[in-house]
Amino acid sequence: MRCFTQILPTLLLLLAVTGSRATAQAQSEIPADPSATFKTLIPHLNAIPRPRLVQGVEAPEQGDIFLPSFSGSPYTVGVSVFPTTTVPEAEEHIAVDPNNFNNLVAMISDFSQNGGFNLSKFAVSKNNGATWSQGFIPRSGGLPKTADGHIWQANSDPVVAMDKLGNVFLANLYLQVDSFGNVTNDGYYVCTATLASGPTFTAAGCHAVRTTLTASPNSEDKEWLATDNSASSFSGNVYASWTHFTPTSDSILFSRSTDHGVTWSKAITISTAGQAGAVQGSQVAVGPAGEVYVAYEVFLVSGQGRHFIARSTNGGVSFGTPVALTPAFNNLSFAASYRDNSFPALAVSPVAGKAFVYDVYTDQPSASSRTAFVRSTTSGGLTFTAPIRVNDSTSGQRLMPAVAADRNGNVHISWFDTRNSSGSTDLLDIFATYTKDNGSNFAPNARVTSSQINNGFSGFIGDYSGIAAGPNGTTSLAHPAWTNGGVGGTTNGRLRTAKLTVP
Q1: Residue 62, helix vs strand vs coil
Q2: pLDDT surpassing 80 at residue 439
């Protein structure tokens, strides 16, 4: 495996062979590879690495994993809108208000300010995505400021969540940079405000989950955030996961807040000792009974990846031993100017008694990559189905999927796709599908983008995308979020979204 170890979004160009018809738990363990993963922070536009393209690299043909029935009608796709006005931007996420599905909040990394250092921007819609207002995270003199009074050079990896009490949470990595543009220290912070206030965020509301205010060889990376909107005794809790790097290793950490993001518990380790140094890309999600799940990727000595998942049933106080969520799979290895990865996209159904766990990811079984879907075999369980391919075309490549589950029992998936690009990986579309029957059948893929995304040989389009979903009465809606270009190339990316309606 070859890795490009500059700082920010992860690029893992891998070549491997795997067989994947058994369930995840039926596979024998493959040792983790501590040399395979690295930090992914980028403070500055000019520091974005331009990885050397891997020409002619294909994994031997595996044959398809389980293929669902593509039946029914695809989404009805609404017009694409721009929630923000500045460029360049990349790496986006979106959340929906659990009390009112007309309210949406999105986030993206913006490189238009402060000499090109990335600053997170948020956008708010209160009319189901028709119109948006925008703002930057709290700043002082143009630089990010947090409740501890620290002034940072940049921030990165934006993630947004909302709770049923009307709170909005903006999660970011905050970065301190030296005169050479190198990150010296960082922190994981969450900014809080109420939706009723606008929301209006202030530095006093940006609290540390974990931080180092002076130069340190350790760093935090790839954070994620989820709120507990269940009817359980843990409702209102906020949960954070991330990767903690030391000079010699890394691990997946977790913290919780029981006071709506003001204070955070001492971090606990989710990944196992045998996985130390070989983990990255965690996500956290909450089930309808307050169960907390953390999923992440482990990089294997075979040159492959595999997702693992851990569960807490006591509000994040402790977790069980992580179990395999997927079989071993080939990480993405197609030639591209931008970064790609095979991290998990995690969701849990909010329907009581039907708390199925869903993971969506992309892998490279052959010359073309695919979007794979697994779910728990039982409600809230930790055994999982064999992967199901949800892209209904095998032409081209797929990357960075997002998944959301709604209260009507539907699961929504979107991803970047090059099927219409005649072999180019710098021209992409967003495609999306949904399932009404827990993965037995999927709708034909819908093209969400009205025109192709031109990345213009960009070095960075992000490490993930987002999708939010919720019912409007009996009608299910989804809102994918993506960047319509890149950063560091010949085009400028900008946050974009559209409303998808399940027929």
Answers
A1: coil
A2: yes
For residue 189, the cross-strand partners are 172, 208
Cα distances from 245 to residues 38, 173, 175, 186, in angstroms, run: 8, 13, 14, 11
Is the bond into 88 cis (omega within 30 degrees of 0)?
yes
Residue 104, both tokens:
């949406």
DSSP secondary structure of 266-278? PPEE-S-GGGTTS
- Determine the length of the chain: 503
How many other C-beta atoms are found inside a 10 Å radius of the C-beta of residue 266? 8
In the numeric block, the tokens 């520091």 are attached to: 47
Q: Which residue has the tokens 């990349």?
A: 90
Q: What is the pLDDT of residues 388-417, one digit of tens each?
A: 999 999 999 999 999 999 999 999 999 999
DSSP type of residue 32: B
Give the three-state DSSP class for 107.
strand
DSSP string, 3-17: E--SSSS--EE----
Listed in sequence order, the residues at least 6 apart from 51 whose beta carbon sits closer than 8 Å to its beta carbon are 4, 11, 13, 337, 339, 459
d(CA 189, CA 208): 4
The number of beta carbons lying within 10 Å of the beta carbon of residue 418 is 24
Domains annotated for the chain, with CATH where assigned, are 2-52+68-501 (2.120.10.10)
- Per DSSP, the residues of 65-101 read -B--EE-S-PPEE---B-S---S-EEEEEEEE-SS-T
Residue 13 has pLDDT above 50, yes or no: no
Amino acid code (one letter) for 260: H
Give me Rg for the CA atoms of the chain: 20
Phi, psi of 30 (to 5 degrees): -110, 130
Structure token pair of residue 156: 């990165």
- Tell me which residue of 417, 439, 444 sits closest to 373, measured CA to CA: 439
- Global pTM reads 0.92
CB atoms within 10 A of CB 197: 11
State the amino acid at position 286 in one-letter form: V
Judge contact between 479 and 467, C-beta under 8 A: yes
The two structure tokens encoding residue 487: 């950063």
List beta partners, residue 12. 3
Provide the strand spans (E) within 149-278.
154-162, 167-177, 183-194, 206-211, 219-227, 238-245, 250-257, 268-269
pLDDT 10s digits, 255-289: 999 999 999 999 999 999 999 999 999 999 999 99
Beta strand extents in 263-421 (DSSP E only): 268-269, 279-286, 292-299, 305-312, 323-324, 345-348, 357-363, 370-375, 388-389, 398-405, 411-417
Tokens 């995270």, residue? 137
C-alpha–C-alpha distance, residues 456 and 353, integer Å = 47
